[in-house]
Design a protein that fits this description.
Number of helices: 2
Number of strands: 3
Strand order of the largest sheet: 1-3-2
CATH superfamily: TFB5-like
Coiled coil: 41-68
Subunit structure: Component of the 7-subunit TFIIH core complex.
Radius of gyration: 16 Å
Structural class: alpha+beta
Main location: nucleus
Keywords: Coiled coil, DNA damage, DNA repair, Nucleus, Transcription, Transcription regulation
Order of helices and strands: EHEEH
Mean pLDDT: 91
Low-confidence stretches: none
InterPro entries: TFB5-like_sf, TFIIH_TTDA/Tfb5
CATH architecture: 2-Layer Sandwich
Strand content: 15-25%
Shape: elongated
Number of domains: 1
Length: 77
């Protein structure tokens, strides 16, 4: 018998969506109910906060790596 799952429509750009899809895949599809198109997903309502947390951590790491790449050890400051 089919079961209903409460979901939240998430709109994001394709680069963020790719990260969300990777998070979902790494966690045995615990977050996404439906992949609608290149900008939209339906995410399990009960997992939305956890997904946001994981996404923020990944984005923070990415920003830190970009800062490290931007700094030139030969130039002060």
């Amino acid at each position: 018998m089919p079961r209903a799952v409460k979901g939240v429509l998430v709109e994001c750009d394709p680069s963020i969506k790719a990260i969300i899809l990777k998070i979902d895949e790494d966690h045995h599809h615990a977050f996404i109910v439906e992949d609608l198109d290149e900008d939209h997903l339906v995410v399990k309502e009960a997992k939305l906060a956890e997904l946001k947390e994981r996404l923020e951590k990944i984005l923070e790491k990415t920003q830190m790596m970009e800062k490290d790449d931007d700094s030139d050890p030969d130039q002060p400051g």
